[in-house]
# Entry
Amino acid sequence: MSSNKKKKNNNIMGISFVDLSGQTEETTTTPVGVSSRFDNDEFREMTKKRLMAQNNSTSTPPASPSPIESAESVRETSEKTDKILQDIAGNTGAYTLLPLNLLTPTPAEWNQFSTISNEKKVLMADSIYRNGLQQPLVVRALDKEGTTYQILAGNTRKSIYEVLYEITQDEKYLSIECKVYGYKELSDDQAREIASDTNYVQRANLTGRDKSFAVRTKLNILKKRGEKQILEKAAEQMGMKRTAAFSWNKMANLIPAFFDMFDEGLISQKAATRIAAWSHEVQAELHKQADLLTNEIIMAIPAKTPSERVLDKFHEVLDQTTQEHTAATKIGYIDTLTEEDDGYTIHLSGKAPSASQLIVMYIPDKKATAFKNAYKDYILDSSEKAD
# Structure
């Protein structure tokens, strides 16, 4: 297939363009409409409920973008996808309808992007039900006869078509519009690059792991081609600065737990890049003490510290930080405590913290430890004099 003219089919209902596809799945042995990706009763019920509510409504809502997209984002992402396909494959490929049962998923190692929530899947299914297909799938033929096609972009769209067929039994969901590349029209490297780059531009919310995987894939492909200045080229093609591409590539070595901390805003990108330089075994041990990790502590461990020395250095930095904190919050100590017939005479050393009051009190033994832990920075102790 070599025609570049885009085939329009106004009768095809489809998913909104913003592709939030997650991990691939094995569907080659699964009957159409029974995708293992959607063996999730909650998702099915959520989708059925949403579609039934619309069908039972007194007025039919107009076809319009769902909350996960906008007309502008659809146009922008469509243009980016077309440019990717043009840059990688030129004017090859043609648009046509393909039965779902001829489509196989993207290889798992090509599609390590994060999964999506049931809520977003429902919005995508709703968009299929109400709107036309904004972006066809991208596939390539795996044999001359055209009996099997590998999905390069659109695993989730294909899977949601299966689910909507199961729910509605409408045969229009048994086929989907695709841009099809003929047998051997693409090399494996071209196919992999399309799979990664289209996911990168079509996803609405990329995680740190998604960006790292996309950048690492792009760099590996450029290097395999023998390109020069691959970091600069990758940054330009992916619309980011060279320093950002460098950081995302380094972060590809992070273990999932630290990617989670980064996505949750618990560590900065600089700190994540520093951690990624260490072995996975060291990262796993370090993460066991995640409650003690701060950007300052991580960055205090020199970048060139060998992995076998990282944990020792971490404890050194932690001890030093603790001592500095203690010194900064030290407010003095009890100089003398003299017991007299009618009470005590206390001589204190140091100054009281601002906005505080001096209180002398007795604490029950059972509550003393918890009280000291809660107010340790404000308690005067005679034992500090020895310091």
About this structure: Residues 253-327 form one domain.
